[in-house]
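Internal tracking record. Fields below are filled automatically when a chain is submitted to the structure queue. Please do not edit lines marked as system-generated. If the sequence contains nonstandard residues, flag them in the REMARKS field before resubmitting.
Queue: standard
Priority: normal
Entity type: single polypeptide chain
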Amino acid sequence: MTPAGTKWAATGAIIVTVAISLGVADRFLAKVESAEIKKTAQESYEKGSRLLAQGKAGDAVDLLSDAHALERENPDYELQLIAAMMATGKIATAEPILTDLLLRQPNDGPANLTAARLMVRKGDTRDAEAYYHRAIYGQWLGNSAMQRASARMELVDLLAARNQKEELLAELISLQAGAPATPAIQKRLAELFVLANAPDRAATVYAGLVQKNPEDIEAYEGLGDAELQQGQYRAARDVFLRASMREPDNGSIHEHLLTLDTVTGLDPTLRQLTSAEKYRRSIRILEIASEALDQCISKDASAGAAAGSDENRELLKTANATIAGKTPAHVTNEAAEGVLSLAEKLWRAESTTCERNSSDQNALELIMKKLAQ
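SYSTEM-GENERATED OUTPUT FOLLOWS
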């Protein structure tokens, strides 16, 4: 090689070396810059998350927006930012971010759960239910069973608030299979079964709690109330009696026992009753119903105007005549049923015209509910 060629070769080698060095330097600087960006984003995310947990959603939005701007497709940052925006009422601003996330990860459990909550905030419960189901059957990291149960519980609370009993019962049955066996969760489950008109399932849950902890008075009361809801008065009385033996000074249990003593002595639906005994009990029930309507009419002027209608007074007149009349020489089941039918009419009249506590569990209320089943 000539001296000139050698010179150009050396120069070329130097250029290549410099180019490689610059490339390495660029990649190094890019990595340093990327690491700095991620670090800054992480710091903003952590600070914003702390502020959100402290209830300072407005301040959290700014920091979480910074984190999101630095890492546009980090789902953790997006979800936390959306949560902060929802807390500050910025639903319209949060929606596009959530839509973008769901387009990238349509089966993501946390993203669908966030979408369900956003729909609830918007008042769109139909879409909210759909997103809850996607969350329940979506993909979760970590303890997926617990996360799915938690999402279903949110859906259950939504259905309970909207009094959607059939849908509520279906979700509760699914939830029961995988719900944690902690007393608090099991009691909540039982309460919701009662709300969903499934006291038999509630009784099963409460019975399990009592078996595990015979000193759990709250579970005893729940079991007793569930038996009451089913019209199982003797079973309910036995439950409250067992509870009373453990906590004799409990006023609520004592009141339940007094009511149940009256109910079991008046229940006209027992199979072993003779026709004469059924008639006697029916007359006593009619007396109680008549007294309740009479008190309703005379309670005060405002109630009397509605309650004291000619129809209601005629019902009272008929009831009083029946009560004062002689017992038939040959009492039949039909005669007792006729008395009970009249008692039901008085009870319905009193129910529709007089103010009543929806949680009322007096003897007449319990008997009438059983007769209506």
